[in-house]
Design brief:
This protein has 755 residues and is an alpha+beta fold. 48% of the residues lie in helices and 10% in strands. The protein is built from 28 helices and twelve strands. The strands form four sheets. A five-stranded antiparallel beta sheet has the order 6-12-7-9-8. It has a three-stranded antiparallel beta sheet with strand order 1-3-2. A two-stranded antiparallel sheet has the order 4-5. A hairpin with a 5-residue loop joins strand 10 and strand 11. Helix 10 runs antiparallel to helix 12 and helix 20 runs antiparallel to helix 26. The longest helix is centred in the last third of the chain and has 29 residues. The protein is globular. The two termini are 58 Å apart.
């Protein structure tokens, strides 16, 4: 990285992304847990500059410089952002990225908190003014040179010799590296680790891409995607300490979902120190991330800000790849000194050139990040901490563990009275209706707007083939559908894994809202429960290489119903949810399903399956031989509107069901409202247009409820419901007192200004 780029990076941090941390977390860390939990100080340039500035403010010289360091260290444990004026000065300097101001603030703060120290603080303040003026009077190049040194980790080492004269030991290198031959061997050993872990080279790129795609966007839709992604990576970085990748993602899911429902954020391996930072992040503030996790957060942003990912994260596993061992000969489990950081940085640059020259792994794009990621992977494999096939798993690989499937359709439900007859139209007509842009609940990133807008990590939605038999008609419907994929968390209750009641509430509220606005017979969601006991695994997960056809969906749905299951296309396969309302499903347990899967199965001497069970054979005969069948536990809910719609036009039953669900959580309701209003307007215009074109009837109460949502929001709908105003022959706006025509609606469903 050039000096100019380093300066730009430092100046960018002043404006927002990551102020260097003078208050790092010192919680104990389990070094066996993985790469993220042991991220060590990467860029302590501002700390070093603050030390120097305080020392100079005290008068300079060795003694005062040492005292400056002590004051900085002492200030790390003080509430410097509180009511003390010097603390406020220090906090302002941190936010501004002003190292001299930071130093003066720390010194003044330290003096202000000891008896009789205020007089000394006045001296510091006066000295500070002189120092600042002197700096301002310097020529630009001199000031830039200081910034170059603050931004360059190598400058931390000062003028240390490359080797110790008496022993030949390379400064910062592992013990015993005291000759060019040994240094060369160190590089070769590191390259061997890279080769072993080459599959993990893209870990940062893949993780960054996944987190950007899953990061929640605000429901107003006016937030840059990069800002949303930075918020997600900041949260990931804060909860990374002391965890592996899977657990790290789970902590972040919990934090975001707590915030979505208005709960205080309380999560992480060290919740007392991590939760306040998470609250800051979710409030849109920029917390002090610190040298242990700030660089990690930066490297996770390379998908949209590649300039940030210039340096490797020198954690214990990268150190082990370089050959560092503990004093007792055990694996290295400590932090690294500035000299050690500088040594690893310097050697990384040399190794990167060698990797590219040799085209290791068939690549010529080796850099500091992917070489460190590969070496980290190789070190973990060599230590037998992970298997080679799992060593490179990134956040995206664990995402499916947390994903819930919320399935929906756009074709109004049969028997609801909305666009009556559309379910009997050819597939091409129903597909065109579904493909109408006004039918989509997704944002520009392909995520479901309600879950993403509520603040949940949300993977892009998938298309599916919807199947449902409403009670009102008893006729199977097969329609184009969509699968929203929010990330939710499980809990252990009495040694049983269940979906968090908090997250179940989110799913219920969102899918109730969707079913009401889209006039569906019901809303639905389900979630595979990972790690459930075998006795609880009464459902099946079937992964497929290609989506099912309409014919396959009809056949597999009938087979599932005959065997006490509900078949649901997830976009990546079909899940058989045990139907506890059927006689077969009511009697089924995980144990009995296990017996069903063994019945008729034949194994050879090596216990390889040479003939599958009857149920497996029947599934493959419909879906193909590529289907992978696993027994799982699935939690689900179906939020029926059948009775509400059957209550008749103007009854208000469906509206009451919708309002009552929204009232269970006001925080979530407020987050969902912009999306609900927008989609209500889009559906209002879309359905009116099709009705005028085809003669298919629409329910006036449905259209008027949508109008009220567009015009005045949820409170207006509540007011209208109480006033009995949802079903006049011609709707009179409850709020404005003026009639609104269909023609006043824009194509996106919003209302145009009335003259």
């Amino acid at each position: 990285m050039t000096a100019e780029l380093a300066i730009r990076k430092l100046l960018q941090r002043r404006a927002n992304p990551f102020t260097m941390d003078l208050n790092p977390l010192d919680d104990p860390i389990d070094p066996s847990l993985g790469p993220i939990q042991t991220i060590q100080t990467e860029t302590p340039g501002l700390r070093s500059t603050a030390n120097t500035a305080v020392g100079e403010a005290l008068g300079g010289g060795r003694e005062n410089l040492e005292q400056g360091r002590n004051l900085v260290n002492a200030a790390e444990n003080l509430p410097y952002a509180g009511g003390v004026a010097a603390g406020a000065d220090f906090a302002d300097a941190v936010r501004a990225g002003d190292p001299i101001g930071m130093g003066i603030g720390v010194a003044g703060l330290g003096l202000s908190l000891i008896p009789g120290g205020n007089k000394g603080k006045e001296v510091i303040d006066a000295a500070g003014d002189k120092i600042k003026k002197a700096v301002q009077d310097r020529e630009n190049e001199s000031a830039l040179e200081g910034l170059r040194q603050a931004a360059d980790r190598q400058a931390i080492v000062g003028k240390s010799k490359d080797r110790v004269g008496t022993t030949g030991q390379y400064v910062g290198a592992p013990a015993g590296v005291d000759s060019p031959e040994k240094l060369e061997q160190l590089r070769e050993n590191y390259i061997d680790a890279v080769i072993t872990g080459v599959a993990g080279a893209n870990w940062y790129d893949d993780s960054s891409r996944y987190l950007r795609g899953a990061a929640p966007r605000n429901s107003g839709g006016n937030e840059p995607s990069e800002l949303a992604a930075q918020r997600a990576t900041d949260a990931i970085a804060v909860t990374s300490q002391g965890t592996n990748v899977d657990t790290n993602l789970g902590f972040t899911v919990k934090a975001l979902n707590q915030r979505a429902t208005g709960q205080p954020v309380q999560t992480g391996r060290f919740p007392e120190s991590q939760s306040p930072k998470l609250e800051q992040i979710l409030d849109g503030e920029t917390p002090v991330l610190g040298p242990k996790i700030g660089p990690f957060a930066e490297n996770l942003q390379v998908d949209w800000n590649p300039d940030l990912g210039q340096n490797p994260v020198n954690d214990i596993w990268n150190g082990r790849a370089f050959g560092y061992v503990g004093a007792d000969g055990k694996p290295w489990d400590e932090g690294f000194s500035p000299q050690q950081h500088a040594f690893m940085d310097e050697q990384t640059k040399i190794i990167v050139d060698i990797l590219n020259e040799r085209k290791v792994g068939g690549r010529t794009d080796w850099n500091a990040l992917n070489s460190q990621a590969a070496a980290w992977t190789g070190a973990k494999i060599n230590a037998k901490k992970v298997s080679p096939e799992n060593a490179a798993m990134d956040y995206g690989d664990f995402g499916n563990k947390y994903v819930a499937n919320a399935t929906s359709e756009q074709i109004p439900g049969a028997g609801t009275g909305q666009l009556d007859g559309i379910v009997d139209e050819p597939l091409s007509v129903r597909q065109a209706f579904t493909d109408d842009p006004r039918s989509s609940w997704d944002n520009e990133a392909g995520q479901d707007k309600m879950y993403s807008g509520a603040g949940l990590l949300t993977e892009p939605s998938l298309t599916n083939v919807g199947s449902y038999t409403p009670e009102s008609t008893g006729v199977l419907e097969i329609n184009p559908g969509s699968v929203a994929r929010p990330l939710v968390q499980m809990e252990d209750v009495n040694k049983t894994k269940i979906l968090s009641p908090r997250d179940k509430g989110i799913l219920d509220t969102v899918e109730t809202s969707r079913a009401f606005v889209d006039v569906q017979n019901g809303g639905a969601w389900h979630k595979i429960v990972p790690g459930a006991k075998a006795g609880e695994q009464s459902s099946l997960a079937i992964v497929m290489d290609s989506p099912p056809s309409e014919r396959q969906m009809i056949e597999i749905t009938k087979f599932a119903e005959d065997n006490g299951f509900i078949a649901v296309d997830t976009g990546v396969g079909i899940n058989f949810i045990n139907d506890t309302f059927s006689d077969v499903g009511k009697a089924r347990t995980g144990a009995t399903l296990g017996k069903e899967l063994k019945k008729g199965r034949v194994l050879d001497a090596e216990k390889n399956v040479i003939k599958e069970s009857e149920i497996e054979q029947n599934i493959r005969s419909i879906l193909g031989d590529d289907a992978q069948i696993d027994r799982v536990k699935i939690e689900s809910n179906y939020l029926s509107f059948d009775e509400a719609w059957q209550a008749g036009e103007g009854s208000g039953a469906a509206t009451d069901q919708f309002i009552n669900e929204l009232e269970t959580n006001k925080t979530l309701r407020n987050s969902l409202e912009p999306t609900i209003r927008s989609k209500a307007g889009a559906n209002l215009a879309r359905d009116a247009e099709l009705s005028a074109k085809t003669g298919m009837p629409v329910r006036e109460d449905v259209q008027n409820a949508r109008r009220i949502l567009v015009e005045g929001g949820i409170e207006a709908l509540i007011k209208a419901r109480k006033a009995g105003a949802i079903l006049p022959a011609v709707f009179v706006a409850v709020l404005a007192g003026t009639q609104v025509d269909y023609e006043e609606l824009r194509l996106d469903g919003s209302l145009m200004e009335s003259s």
